[in-house]
Amino acid sequence: MLQLLERADCPYEAIGKEAQYCGVTPPGPGKFFENAADFQIGDNTTINSPITVSEVTGNAPSTLKVAVDIKHTYQGDLKVDLVAPDGTVYVLHNRAGGGTDNINTTYTVNASSEVANGTWQLRVNDNANQDTGFLDKWSLQF
To answer: Fewer CB within 10 Å: N-end or C-end of the chain?
Structure first.
């Protein structure tokens, strides 16, 4: 049996069979929320991208999945935080990566002390000159 491991090379993704044939685990049960609006990230600026969560019972899980897709030419410029509806800040990325381009990562956050419903924000702060980019999209998987 041939198993494709590169998601970009998986023809089965289009028909929802990637987990079976491509070695990819699909999102688990729970609600999924996404903000796909582009937010420009200029030098030495901060952007906030909101997602309003509703109809989720109780608190957020201890394994909240936060998928982030940022196009930027220098990871080391960036600090990325998840801000809960009550203002609690969870640091996802803190100026690591040096000159590596882009952040396309899913983080696991223990947000079990947070009420799930409300407006969550992804805060991206560019802390240097010369390199810019944009937040392409981000999501929460409860």
So the answer is: N
- Taking the mean position of all CA atoms in its chain, how far away is CA 6? 20
User: For residues 126 and 105, what is the distance between their CA atoms, to the nearest angstrom?
Assistant: 18
pLDDT tens, the chain, 142 aa long: 333 344 445 554 555 554 544 554 444 568 999 999 999 999 999 999 999 999 999 999 999 999 999 999 999 999 999 999 999 999 999 998 888 899 999 999 999 999 999 999 999 999 999 889 999 999 999 9
44: exposed, middle or buried (Cβ count in 10 Å: 0-12, 13-18, 19+): exposed
As a whole number of angstroms, the distance between CA 43 and CA 67 comes to 23
E strands, 54-132, in order:
64-72, 78-83, 89-94, 103-109, 118-126
Residue 111 contacts residue 84 (beta carbons within 8 Å) = yes
- Both tokens of 51, joined, read 């997602």
